[in-house]
Each structure stands twice: as structure tokens, then as C-alpha cells.
Design brief:
Blueprint (H helix, E strand, L loop, with lengths): L8 H36 L2 H4 L1 H36 L6 H50 L2 H16 L17 E2 L2 E2 H5 L1 H4 L19
Helix pairs in contact: 1-4, 1-5, 3-4, 4-5
């Protein structure tokens, strides 16, 4: 009847409780590391660095570059149109008013396109920064190393803060308004034929505008 007996039920229970305690402690430490890393990432990509002020500044930089160019082209187009009207002896005619209306329409379409592009570019930047923040989260959860994740996030955030809008010289935004045969385009040829003289480029490089009425 001799021989060693197995561990008692009490010993087994104590062992299981100890294992559970260690597992809980390990998970608490893991969660603390994740919370630490997530807090650092949230601060780097938070409103202090990437709030409305940052994005408004980006959009304004785009518009402050493009709109003065548009204004300069408008002034040039208006001067040319005025000279053409003067040569045709139409400065005080209804044709002059119609031609000015065509020019104003082109200007409004062009400005609207530039503002829409600035909004689209700003929205794309918001999405890009949000994606970088998510990538930082993913690295944190994969490595469970808050220091590595925070350092990577800091580099990404620093680069993102340096982002500037793509700027460059605008193409020709105004199509010349034809004035001839003793009158402006519309009074001579009619509204439908005059439409063919108005087809400005959009800031995106495509699209057209059609004068109605």
C-alpha cells in the first residue's frame, strides 16, 4: 500500500490560483504598455499638432498662392477685352456689358474651382495623417513596445507638420472673349453661338463652363 500519493486537491487549487495571478499580472503590465504607447501617439497626432488651425493654415497657403494668380489673369483678360471693345467702338454698348458678364462668369467658375481643390487637398491631408496615426497604433499592438511606437509616431508627425500644398503657376484660366463684326460675340451671333467662346480650364485641368441663357 506504500508509494507516494499525488498532490492534494488543495495544492492543485493553490497552483492554479498562482498561475491565474501571474497571468493577470502579465496582462495588466501588457495593457499598461499599450496604454502608455497609445497615449503618446494620441498626443502626437492630437489637436495641439493637427487641429483645425493646422489644416486651415494648409488650405490658406494653397489659396494665398493661387488666388492672386487668378486675380492677375483676370486683370489681364479684362484689360484685353476693354481694349478690343474700344477698338470696335463698343465701350458704351450693351455688348460691353454682355462681354463683361462672360468674363465675370469665367472668374467665378475659376475661383470656385480653386477653392474646391483647396478643400479636397486639405481633406486628403487629414486622411493621410489619420492613416499615419493608425499605422502607429498597428506597430504598437504588434510590438507591444511603447517606446518604439512613440518614436516612429514622432517622426511621422514631425514630417506631416512640414507638409505644404502643391503649388505652381496656373495655366491660362481665361478664354478670350471674341469681339468682332462690329459687336461683341453674343449680340452678333446669339447666346448659343457665344457659348463656344467660353470654356475655361478648371483648376483640376479638366472640365468646362457653359454660359446659359
Amino acid at each position: 500500500m506504500g508509494g507516494k500519493s499525488g498532490p492534494s486537491n488543495n495544492q492543485m487549487v493553490q497552483f492554479q490560483m498562482e498561475q491565474a495571478r501571474k497571468a493577470e499580472q502579465k496582462e495588466n503590465l501588457r495593457q499598461a504598455r499599450l496604454d502608455q504607447g497609445k497615449g503618446a501617439i494620441d498626443e502626437l497626432f492630437g489637436p495641439d499638432n493637427f487641429g483645425d488651425e493646422f489644416f486651415n493654415k494648409y488650405k490658406d497657403a494653397s489659396l494665398n498662392y493661387a488666388l492672386p494668380q487668378l486675380e492677375g489673369q483676370y486683370d489681364t483678360a479684362k484689360s484685353g477685352m476693354t481694349a478690343d471693345l474700344a477698338r470696335a467702338g463698343l465701350l458704351r454698348s450693351s455688348s460691353a456689358g454682355y462681354a463683361q458678364g462672360l468674363l465675370e462668369n469665367q472668374n467665378a467658375v475659376n475661383e470656385g474651382g480653386l477653392r474646391a481643390k483647396a478643400d479636397t487637398d486639405t481633406a486628403a491631408l487629414r486622411q493621410s495623417i489619420a492613416s499615419q496615426q493608425q499605422q502607429a497604433y498597428n506597430q504598437l499592438y504588434q510590438t507591444e513596445d511603447p517606446t518604439v511606437a512613440a518614436n516612429t509616431a514622432a517622426n511621422s508627425a514631425a514630417n506631416a507638420q512640414l507638409t505644404q500644398p502643391n503649388t505652381g503657376a496656373l495655366g491660362d484660366m481665361f478664354k478670350p472673349i471674341v469681339i468682332g463684326l462690329g459687336s461683341a460675340a453674343a449680340p452678333v451671333y446669339g447666346a448659343s453661338q457665344a457659348n463656344s467662346y467660353l470654356n475655361p480650364k478648371s483648376p483640376m485641368g479638366s472640365g468646362s463652363y457653359t454660359q446659359t441663357g
